[in-house]
Design goal:
Blueprint: E1 2-14, E2 20-26, E3 28-31, E4 36-49, E5 55-65, E6 70-80, E7 89-102, E8 106-114, E9 117-128
Parallel strand pairs: 3-9
Antiparallel strand pairs: 1-2, 1-4, 4-7, 5-6, 5-8, 8-9
């Protein structure tokens, strides 16, 4: 298995011909105060599998803080089919996260686990937004 893409984005989707479309890739969110509530983001990743790796895989996405505390977790199973001989199976995953709460400013990460093994981590920083000066 090879991880080809892993990112956070404002939006992601698949075209009619199964092309992965990603818009607004980011690693920082800004807010004036805590807790930070981020209205919407997408966790996007793409995996390539060898023919021998076909079959059912457990997928888990975890948002954790700098101390490793789990804040949000979602998971499920995917089925990787056997590709035509000489090719690999490509799997695109898009997970939408709405109203995600970050308790305080600081560093976070999204961990992507396949069959219990961490395959990728995506860093995310929650940063205090500068307040505009009042006249």
């Amino acid at each position: 298995m090879e991880l080809r893409i892993a990112c956070l984005a404002d939006y992601a989707g698949l075209s009619i011909d199964r092309k992965l479309n990603i818009m607004g890739v980011f690693s920082n969110i800004f807010a004036p105060n805590e807790p930070i509530i981020h209205p919407q983001m997408y966790v996007v990743f793409q995996l390539d599998f060898e023919p021998a790796e076909a079959g059912r895989k457990a997928v888990k996405i975890v948002l954790q803080d700098a101390d490793g505390r789990e804040l949000v977790s979602m998971g499920g199973e995917i089925e990787i089919g056997r590709p035509t001989p000489g090719q690999r199976s490509t799997f695109n995953q898009i997970a939408q996260m709405n109203g995600t709460v970050f308790p305080k400013f600081g560093q976070y990460e999204i961990c992507i686990l396949i069959n219990g093994r961490t395959e990728a981590t995506i860093p995310l920083n929650a940063i205090r937004a500068e307040q505009p000066a009042r006249p």
